[in-house]
Structures are given as structure tokens and as C-alpha cells.
Amino acid sequence: MTDKNKKPMRKDYQAIFTKAYALMDEAIIAGNCGECCGYHCCRRRDDDEKRLGMYLLPLEYEYIQAAVATDYELHSQKHYKMPPKIKKMYYIYCHLESGCLRDHRPIQCRTYPFEPHLENGVFSLVIEKEQIHDCPLITRRSEWRPAFIDGIYNGWLELLKIPIIKYHIEYFSKERSAAGNIMINYP
After folding, report:
1. What pTM, to 2 d.p., does this model score?
2. CA-based nearest residue to 92, from 60, 48, 132
3. Which of 44, 93, 98, 147 could form an SS bridge with 71, CB 3.0 to 4.6 Å?
4. Quick check: is 130 in a domain?
5. Along the chain (187 residues), what's the average pLDDT of each consecutive run of 10 residues?
6. Is 5 within the bounds of a domain?
7. In angstroms, rounded to a whole number, what is the distance separating the alpha carbons of residues 121 and 140?
């Protein structure tokens, strides 16, 4: 690489992200979940026309999204609250007016409404009480496809092999537990 501040890409991290994306590519229900809520979590703007976006995981931009994410901001710890060991995070906006590039959607889009949770060395998937999007499928869990749950769980296990992502998950798990913000825990 020509930029002396960039670290060389790690092939093992590339393989981990690629495998996690594949594992997490299962639909939550049969059919299109966006039709249940008018694509509430996939919209570009909120009701006040403010642009909506989301944070990528640490290293997700570098290893997966750099080739496709064209509309993003780079946030630094200097101006935004983030875990102490994480110095920057990419905040991306959906780059299509009519929706996302489904094959390239970020990890957090693939796993919603689940959040990864790591407490006392035990990994689980949780659904938070306080949600930005209030997914209507939470009350319809009997319709969730087992392949979705298994894929999300196994994809996160892959991502936990990357130390900065494990740190990221531990940090937000502690915040979530301290706030009592766990509605459902899937062991």
C-alpha cells in the first residue's frame, strides 16, 4: 500500500468477514421482512427527513465495504462517543434511493434484531428492550427461520476471532447489561 498509515490487509480477517457474511445471509422469515413494516429499518430518511445510516463494525469497511460503500462519514473518537480502544468508525448511508444492495448489506443489517452479547466469556444473541426501529417480527418469533438464527449465531462466532470486534462486542455488552437493556436472550 502506498499510504504509510494503512496497515496491510490480513488474509485471515478477509476470510473471516467473507465467511460471516455468507453465514449471515439467511432471511429471518420466509418472504420479504421489509413488507411487514414498510421497510422501517431500511429507509434512507427518518420522518423529519434527516438522513439515516449506521455504524459498521471495526474493520468491516476495510475488509468488505470499501468496494461498495460510497456514501459514508468517518467518525473519530475526538468528536463521537465510541469504545476507548476504537479510534474511528465508519458511518454509512444506504446509497440507493430505492433500498440497499442486498448482497452487500452490513453485518448489523444482516443480524437485526439480534445483537451479539458476550458476558463472562459466554456468547449469546440478545434482543434489546430499547430499539431504534421496533421490529414487528419480535412478536412473531415463531415464524423465524432456524437457518437465520443459526447463521447469525455462527457468523458472530467467526467475527469474535478478530480481537477488535471481540472488544467492541464486550464493550457494548457491558453497557447493555448495566442498563438492563436485554429483552430476550438466545443462548
Report:
1. 0.86
2. 60
3. 93
4. yes
5. 57 92 91 71 68 86 84 89 92 66 79 94 94 78 93 97 96 96 87
6. no
7. 30
